[in-house]
Amino acid sequence: MNIFVLNTGRCGSTTFNRACSHITNYSCAHESRSGMLGEDRLDYPKNHIEADNRLSWFLGRLDKKYGDDAFYVHLKRNKNDTSRSYAKRYWYGIMKAYRNGVLMKLPKKTDSMSVALDYYETVNSNIDLFLKDKSKKITITLENIDEGFLEFWNLINAQGDLSAALAEFNMRYNATKESKANKKKIFFRIIAKLKRVLIGFPKYIKNV
Questions:
Q1: Are the C-beta atoms of residues 2 and 44 closer than 8 Å to each other?
Q2: 21: helix, coil or strand?
Q3: What is the largest CA-CA distance in the chain?
Q4: Please, which residues have CB within 8 angstroms of residue 197's CB and are 6 or more apart in sequence?
Q5: For a disulfide at 3, which of 28, 49, 60, 150, Cβ 3.0-4.6 Å?
Q6: How many whole angstroms separate alpha carbon 26 and alpha carbon 4?
Q7: Which range, of 110-119, 121-130, 152-161, 186-195, averages the lowest pLDDT?
Q8: What is the pLDDT of residues 108-131, one digit of tens each?
Q9: CB-facing half-sphere around the CA of 164: CA atoms within 13 A
Q10: Contact assessment for residue 24 and residue 41, using Cβ atoms and an 8 Å cutoff
Q11: Phi, psi (rounded to 5 degrees) for 157
């Protein structure tokens, strides 16, 4: 049986995958086929657990290939905490793609937290609709991860080292680096200001 961990990102999916690595009767991976196209994108091995937040954009194809034969995990984190984490990553990654590629005509001065909250609602709504008719599923919240993971372990008849798996949730993986995020934010602000100066410079020369 294939297992898919659907999520927004910034909600513990990397740690969840680390915990699953202690399961011996399933393989597991995190975003392992994210750079592939066509049938290769969703061609996962049997008895495999895959955590990939970008699967929320492939739900139609995921349903067509795996449907109700797979087991689905909806991994969630508190709305504000998830959105704050993404707001810190506003200038790159999936937030940049959502802001520029999906919303497209979003005003440049739009508050980053507002965009992150919108992303959160969009992705989780997509997942909720996808899971509406699925019989093998579980929703796990990061805030109650120990209890949720234990239930998940039992539902999929996992074998392995449960204690080691649960211990992974005491570690932090893929945490947002505040300084890196701030540096990127400052850099893009400088670029934006330079553009405004260059655009306005000919008019300034004309008026001198």
A1: yes
A2: coil
A3: 78
A4: none
A5: 49
A6: 12
A7: 186-195
A8: 899 999 999 999 999 999 999 999
A9: 10
A10: no
A11: 55, 45
**Residues 85 and 27: beta-carbon distance below 8 Å:** no
Q: Give the residue from 41, 39, 52 showing the smallest Cα distance to 3.
A: 52
pLDDT at 199 over 80: no
Q: What is residue 4's DSSP assignment? A: E
Pick the CATH number of 3-176 from 3.40.50.300, 1.20.1250.20, 3.20.20.70, 3.20.20.140: 3.40.50.300
Contact 146, 79 (CB under 8 A): no
- Name the residue ranges covered by the structural domains of the chain: 3-176, 179-208
Return the structure tokens found at 123.
């992705």
Q: Residue 155: what residue type? A: L
d(CA 12, CA 89) in angstroms, rounded, equals 16
Structure tokens of 195?
A: 């553009």
Alpha-carbon distance 168 to 157, whole Å? 19
Strand order across the 3-6 sheet: 27-30, 48-51, 3-6, 71-76, 137-141
**Selection from 79, 80, 81, 100 nearest residue 91 by Cα:** 100
Q: Find residue 63's DSSP bridge partners.
A: none
